[in-house]
UniProtKB/TrEMBL annotation:
UniProt source species: Dictyobacter vulcani
Spans traversing the lipid bilayer: 15-33, 40-61, 67-90
Entry's family note: Belongs to the UPF0410 family.
Keywords associated with the record: Cell membrane, Membrane, Transmembrane, Transmembrane helix
Coiled coil location: none
Chief location category: membrane
Localization in the cell: Cell membrane
InterPro entries xrefs: Transgly_assoc
Protein name: Transglycosylase
Membrane topology, from the record: Multi-pass membrane protein
Domain of life the protein comes from: Bacteria
Amino acid sequence: MMSLVLGATLNPGGIIAWVIIGLVAGWLAGVVMPGKGYGVIGDLILGLVGALIGGFVVGLLAPDASFGFWGSLVVAFIAACILVAILHAVTGRRRI
């Protein structure tokens, strides 16, 4: 369970659930966002970082909220998409 400073909680389950959420959210972000993905490991890291950043932002915007597996997946996916957009803006699109 990930409890944030202001009270919002992302609660998808154990560490296996977090890895699954990170993998799925990162993969979806790689598929949905234009350009090539960052590979399996890169997409997993983007999804996990997206879950952390998204959870923090949701904690600021919706204190005392609680999200289960699917809510955590949506938050991680949206944040991973934003991270991909930022990475594309900073580094430019890869031409491989």
